[in-house]
Amino acid sequence: MARRAHVLSISSALLVPVALFSIACGPVRLAKQPTPGKQTITAEPPSPAPRPGHGRLYVDTVGGPARVGKITKIVETQIAVPNYSMMTLTNGVMIPVVSGTRSVAAKRREVRPLCATPCVVDLPIGDHLVELRRDRNHVDIVNLRITGNARNAYRHALGRNDVPNLRRAFPAILLLSVGISAMITSPLAYLGDKRLGAGLAISGALITILTWPWFQRVRPRAQKGSGYLWTF
């Protein structure tokens, strides 16, 4: 029974960093950006009037400029990523290992630059898939329907989709792994040495409590953007 508890304790402790790395890659989901209201968009039109079959679009973004582009094509490719599985050692301890690779579909967008907000652009009448980009963490794709019988205006509050930064998160993951692992192994240590077991439990709890807010801060953020399209 003691050996089984020992194996389970070590196995659980080894799984802690793997679980934390997985959590660190997952985003903290924020509330959707509030929809912007109507506001006069001041920008110089490219010509006195749009060409026949085109509509005029005034674009602005909340919180600063962003690049506007029209998505002309979406290309899907297959990329190989590591496939993880658990391996049991002779002493019963389980460890994560890489067992080959698996294919994952990845989409690449081809974008034709249009302008930088606030700006005015003329587009053919109809639906257009438009990319709004401030930086790599603030990119939104919207479908805009352009009409030709009036001027079109669109204001957008960009969301965010942070790229995971494991180098930045690593110190917090390391400390949190130490704290949680200490709490997991403390009952086993308590059986042999009550002082050691209690010390591991208390120190592990303190490290975990103090490190958790830091760990949450270094996780990426995800937030949906919001926009409003009107004619005038």
Task: Describe the protein.
The protein is α+β, with helices and mostly antiparallel strands and 232 residues long. It has a domain of 107 residues. Helix content is 33%, strand content 42%. It has 3 helices and 11 strands, in the order αβββββββββααββ. A 4-stranded mixed β-sheet has the order 5-2-8-11, with no helix packed on it. Strands 4-3-6-7 form a 4-stranded antiparallel β-sheet, covered by helices on one side. Helix 1 packs antiparallel against helix 2 and helix 2 runs antiparallel to helix 3. The relative contact order is 0.23. The N terminus is likely disordered.
Distance between the amino and carboxyl termini: 77 Å
The coarse overall form would be elongated
How large is the radius of gyration?
A: 26 Å
The beta-strand count equals 11
Percentage of residues in DSSP E strands: 35-45%
Structural class: alpha+beta
